[in-house]
Amino acid sequence: MLWLYNTLIVLATIAAMEIIAALAHKYIMHGWGWGWHLSHHEPRKGWFEVNDLYAVVFAVLSIVLIYLGSIGYWPLQWIGAGMTAYGLLYFMVHDGLVHQRWPFRYVPRRGYLKRLYMAHRLHHAVRGREGCVSFGFLYAPSVEKLQATLRQRHGRRRRRDAATGPQNEAAQPASREKPAP
Predict the structure, then answer these.
(1) Residue-by-residue DSSP string for the chain
(2) Contact (Cβ atoms closer than 8 angstroms) between residue 116 and residue 93
(3) pLDDT by residue (tens digit) across 22-80?
(4) What pLDDT was estimated at residue 156?
(5) Half-sphere exposure at residue 55, Cβ-oriented, CA atoms within 13 angstroms
(6) Which has more confidence, 75 or 157?
(7) Contact 91, 98 (CB under 8 A)
(8) How far apart are CA 65 and CA 81, in angstroms?
(9) Are the beta carbons of 131 and 154 closer than 8 angstroms?
(10) Is the alpha carbon torsion for 162, 165, 167, 172 positive or negative?
(11) Sign of torsion, CA 36 40 44 47?
């Protein structure tokens, strides 16, 4: 019967880690931890990015929990095992599928994996750390809902706006300040 409890602890930890990771992504990585996470929102140079340090932090925490559980502090080893399983899923879905950090390319065409893929692509559609959507890694709201949220936050660009560029300055309102002589 103990195996059932341990299995439930691992599964509950995986579910809890999605919530914890989404909150950490939104409030830490896009907050005071932006210094590390910024590298993830820029083009990657090489195999690693500073943002990978977050994975190291979670890996060390899970190793410590597994160790503490192995010396008698049940159920910490199973919580650590759940964190490790979540980390593996994160690596496969986020790093591999979405960001193509595998040696091969696969872009899902339909279903759950396409939803995750598109949701994270929409997360990266915003420059900077403000106004992003979809902070989870294994769960994502529908693409339509995320697109609507982005339109609400950032507005929809109109074709007419694109025509109003530096070449069309004469069409701009005359209330602009004049340049200094």
Answers:
(1) -HHHHHHHHHHHHHHHHHHHHHHIIIIIIIIITHHHHGGGGS---SS--TTHHHHHHHHHHHHHHHHHHHTT-TTHHHHHHHHHHHHHHHIIIIIIIIT--SSS-----SHHHHHHHHHHHHHTTSSSSSS-----SS----HHHHHHHHHHHH-PPPHHHHH-SGGGGGGS-TTSPPPP-
(2) yes
(3) 999 999 999 999 999 999 999 988 889 999 999 999 999 999 999 999 999 999 999 99
(4) 67
(5) 17
(6) 75
(7) no
(8) 8
(9) yes
(10) positive
(11) positive
Token pair, residue 39, equals 């590298």
CB of 10 closer than 8 Å to CB of 20: no
- Token pair 């902070």 in the structure block, residue: 135
Alpha-carbon distance 136 to 21, whole Å?
7
* Cα–Cα dist 86/20, whole Å: 11
Q: Which residue has the tokens 């989870």?
A: 136
